[in-house]
Amino acid sequence: MSNHRGFSLIELLIVVAIILIIAAIAVPNLLRSRIAANESSTAQSLRTISTANATYSSVYGIGYALDLSKLGPPAGGGVTKDEADLIESSLATTQVKSGYNFATYTNDGNAGTQADPVLEYTLVAKPSSVQATGVSTFCVDGTSVIRKDPSGTAVAGDNPGHRCDPGDGSVFPPM
Questions:
Q1: Would you say residue 115 has pLDDT above 80?
Q2: In Å, what is the CA distance from 34 to each residue of 28, 40, 91, 136?
Q3: In what helix (H) or strand (E) does residue 25 lie, and over which residues does it extend?
Q4: How confident is the model at residue 160, as a pLDDT?
Q5: Contact predicate 160/168, CB 8 Å
Q6: Closest listed residue to residue 89, CA positions, set 38, 52, 136, 119
């Protein structure tokens, strides 16, 4: 008689239960890590865009860019005020990166010309899916101070004159 010994059904069920418990602990931590990475990437993108906007303003002398597409790379030909090549093309065209949607608001009535420069802008980054891709809303304006609303509930920057106003008369705290 051979003396082969295998695992019993009870032993296998115990191992599966232990694996499920470990997974239940690890998955939320993984999701929090992903959200933290998305938020860090978004803050860095805002820094890059803020610097690009300052460069755009000083190089072209027409104030800030009307929208992110003006800061992107040229489709062909050389660099111009309409395609300044200051930010990556995916952000300039889709205005989505790392689970965040980016929206630019400029002062009304300005066309971005020498006679009518864009003097103010507000750039807002909101999570595409709150609690999945991010939690916080981020904002930067002409002051180049990146601000963060950790609750993610405020509607920021819908009016560029508010300078990252969450809607209650205050401003987002700086990061």
A1: no
A2: 10, 10, 19, 13
A3: helix 9-60
A4: 44
A5: no
A6: 52
